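Hi support team,

I submitted a single chain yesterday and got back a structure, but I'm not sure I'm reading the token output correctly. Could someone confirm the output below corresponds to the sequence I sent? I've pasted both exactly as they appear in my results page.

Thanks,
R.
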Amino acid sequence: MTPLSDHIPALRSFLADDELLQPGSAAYDAETHYWSSYNNPKPLLVVRPKSTTTLQKSVKYLCDSDLDFAVRTGGNGSAGTQDVVLSLKAFDGFEIDREGETVTIGAGQTWGDVDRKVKEVAEGFTVLSTTGPFVGVAGSIIFGARSWFTGEHGFGADPKNLLDAQVALPDGRLVWASTEPDLLWALRGGGGNFGVLCAVEIKLYRYSGKIHGGLIIYPRSSIKAVSQGVSDFINRFTDPKLSVHIMATDFESRTVKGGIAEPSVGLLIFDANGEEHGRSEAGFKWAFDIEGAMDMTKEVDIQGMNDMQAQSPLVGFVELLSSPLVDNIDPDFVVRMVEFVERAVKTNPALGAGTVAILEVIGKNGFTSSGGPSMTAWPHSTPKHMLLLGSGFMPGADCSTELALKVLDEGAGEIDLGHTADQYLPVALHQFNDLSQIYGANYEKLRRLKTKYDPKGRLNKGMFIPPL
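Hi R., thanks for writing in. Yes, this is the structure output for that exact sequence:
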């Protein structure tokens, strides 16, 4: 392998000094700070192009070289590299079309950036921003992009929501994917296997701006009642403007304070009909009525709702994630979520710092709005919910990544009895996941397109689809 130092003169021939960031600078430090330290070593160099021209040249050069590289947007993935990080941070454009109800945004921004800009110039509108404001645009939309509005409007990568994408290809071309329909299809859930996104055109939606949302936490004595209530709610609710995340974790962060984790449950509710509806029988009255409910909900806009995720005490300790899909939420489902956390803590108390199970309840429209399993790279057409599992430990703790991965691998089947290998969202995948099962009938087409656009398999971080 050619030493990185031998590549510097060639990179300097088309990149300015402030587009090459080396260790020791504040800019380098900012570009190498990650949500998780798992599989994210410090690279030797950060390349941060400021224009589409230098991005094109950077992508082509890196793909033609023998350098190991990874693409970075928000820094929330586990797709690190020891050689070069290609940062999209400079791509922060924002162009809104209120009449056409679309917005074109630079793919290097976080969804929090986008929420803020939409609010500033288009009050009463929203995009399908992910529930975490710290998540990058490019790094999420290529894997589906779920939001609080998924139950009403579908996934962010669905054809009606992701309208176009500007992509720098390994061969050096810069294209709008709509000119190559198979490429746009592949970007709708196929990950970063085909090119590097620098801009996306997405749908803009009108909404009231009045959301009843927030956390309700329960004592351990109410776990069974919450589990029954959640099952009953999921089996009866039909309003696409409602959603809820059920969380099983230690809300007191006892492990961080030197103790042993004691998990309980909490509900992060979302009602786009407003607070009056949220507290009614048609909303979440059942949740407020459970004994011991600690109500921290309020009326917010979508920016305020998404910001609640950034305030989680688990941020910084969850090193690994897994995203199984589930559909049969029986009366003991939430009980088993709590037991999953308890087993992890019993296996190694250090895991109490970052082990969590979150059931994200998604309305029926979420999985059926794509138009059918062949319309997007990731085939979703049957109503499901997502069970987000996290595992991790504090830096320096006597624990291993291998053990944390084992906890995740076993977790889906422990909670969702009869869970099958094909039922995963195509994000936060690991060696125990089988891409051919997750993508099903679309997998071979994705491999053919990988061969067309990236025949040498140079875009291989995160979720890698091998060329034929």
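A quick pointer for reading it: Residues 94-207+444-453 form a domain with the Uridine Diphospho-n-acetylenolpyruvylglucosamine Reductase; domain 3 fold (CATH 3.30.465.10). Let us know if anything else looks off.

Best,
Support desk
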